[in-house]
TrEMBL record:
The keyword Membrane applies. Keywords: ATP-binding, Cell membrane, Membrane, Nucleotide-binding, Transport. CDD domains: ABC_NrtD_SsuB_transporters (cd03293). It is found in: Cell membrane. SUPFAM superfamilies: P-loop containing nucleoside triphosphate hydrolases (SSF52540). It comes from Arenibacter aquaticus. This is ABC transporter ATP-binding protein. It holds the Pfam family ABC_tran.
Length: 275
């Protein structure tokens, strides 16, 4: 009998290409320079980060350090000044359906229904599927975010929290390899924020899409993540520290808050941000 070697088990094959299994997203010596009237501003320099398959990482750092810049470069929406970014070994050269983005404001088409908004992405990515199959995908994710009663409501008629639910459904529905979230709950009240964190993590527990989420909320960073990545303050920001969150999954907010390690984690992050 052929027993798989450790090497075989630790690789991942897609389209006939073998990749190191664990690395989904690789940021290598990443640099970003913005031209400004006063000269060049080096936001990020020598930033190295590897994010694994099925990993959920949260990113924290002071305002203006370059978190959105980094995420938008991963999304392919912001040109890279130096170094490189790759997804499963493929260099990022622009936006693509392998990366789904959830922004702070979901930017839905206001005159379109919740279903039509989700269908926009699904139609593009699954153009080979039938109309019924595409509708089923969109409906499945709208159901998952608790909007089964609002398929046909126009986006403009939805509350901010409901709009962000559509944003979450839209991102998951295109089945990306990497989900990029830029403070997706930053504009919501704390109750809605908690509800949407629960919805996000419930879908994620099932789909395990590699996720990278920026947040300013230390508790959110701990609750959702396998690792919290701390960025140094700019200019020339890089990764300053990394905290592994060893809580079991699936986890509930109650489990996390009652865990003896919770306050150690919290203290670690707050100490980093205060120094
Ligand atoms: N297009 C641009 N041109 C020039 N400077 C820019 C541009 N976009 C961002 N910056 C500057 O780059 C720095 C990093 O901005 P960025 O939005 O990435 O930070 P951030 O960490 O996401 O901030 P926040 O937490 O406040 O959202 C800031 O000083 C910002 O003013």
């Amino acid at each position: 009998m052929n027993t798989p070697t450790i090497k075989e088990q630790s690789t991942y094959t897609e389209n006939g290409i073998i990749y190191p299994s664990k690395v989904m997203l690789d940021l290598n010596k990443l640099k970003k320079v913005y031209p400004t009237p006063k000269g060049e501003y080096v936001v990020l320099e020598d930033l190295n980060l590897q994010i694994m398959r099925e990993e959920f990482v949260t990113i924290i750092g002071h305002s203006g350090c370059g978190k959105t810049t980094m995420l938008s470069m991963i999304a392919g929406l912001n040109p890279i000044s130096g170094g490189n970014i790759s997804v499963l070994g493929n260099p990022v050269k622009g936006p693509g359906p392998d990366r789904g983005v959830i922004f702070q404001s979901p930017s839905l088409m206001p005159w379109m229904t919740a279903l039509q908004n989700v269908m926009l992405g699904v139609d593009q990515v699954f153009s080979h599927a039938t109309k019924v199959q595409r509708r089923d995908i969109a409906k499945y994710y709208l159901h998952k975010v608790g909007l089964e009663g609002a398929f046909h409501k126009k986006a403009i008629e939805l509350s901010q929290g409901m709009q962000q639910r559509v944003g979450i459904a839209r991102a998951f529905a295109i089945k990306p390899k990497v989900l990029l979230l830029d403070e997706p709950f930053g504009m919501l009240d704390s109750l809605t924020r908690g509800e949407l964190q629960d919805i996000l993590i419930e879908i994620w527990n099932k789909e395990k899409i590699t996720a990278v989420m920026i947040t300013h909320d230390v508790d959110e960073a701990i609750f959702l993540a396998d690792r919290v990545i701390m960025m140094t303050s700019g200019p020339k920001a890089k990764i300053g520290d990394v905290l592994n969150i060893n809580f079991e999954r699936p986890r509930t907010r109650k489990d996390v808050l009652e865990h003896p390690d919770y306050y150690q984690y919290r203290k670690h992050l707050i100490d980093f941000l205060e120094h």
